[in-house]
Amino acid sequence: MPSTVLVTGGAGYIGSHTAKELARAGYEVVVYDNLSRGHRWAVRWGPFEEGGLHDQDRLQSVLERHRIQAVLHFAAFAHVGESMQAPELYFHNNVGGTLSLLNAMRAAQVRRLVFSSTCAVYGIPAVVPIEEETPPAPLNPYGESKLMVERMLGWEGVCH
Prior knowledge:
It is built from 5 helices and 5 strands, in the order βαββαβααβα. By secondary structure, the protein is of the alpha/beta class. It has one domain: NAD(P)-binding Rossmann-like Domain (Rossmann fold), CATH 3.40.50. The radius of gyration is 15 Å and the shape is globular.
């Protein structure tokens, strides 16, 4: 079981609660967040490293310095309405940022990743509850950006 994990987006709602539960379970948690949408006060469960996903050198340094064994990736823009107004922002941040993270992980030889996707990849599903076999059909750039990352992870060999 990995003992030191990095939580990207760990100053946000889901990331901070995940960091709390990981710490309670005995993991050493390092939070990586640029605080553009998260909150410094939410980081209470381990060391905080301030930085953006596009700073690949910093990411690699953090991964190596803390001897990270796994990454839980929550860092993303997640507002559907905003994604409709500025799709390029979502593709740049969610897809480009994840690619930078993957490159840093590869360079630091970190091979474990948990990616937080969204039900928005399914659009309006024909059947509820949504099952793994439900075909993706995103209706907005946010959902599309998350689906692009899912597909990218498959091509990168992260998902089997």
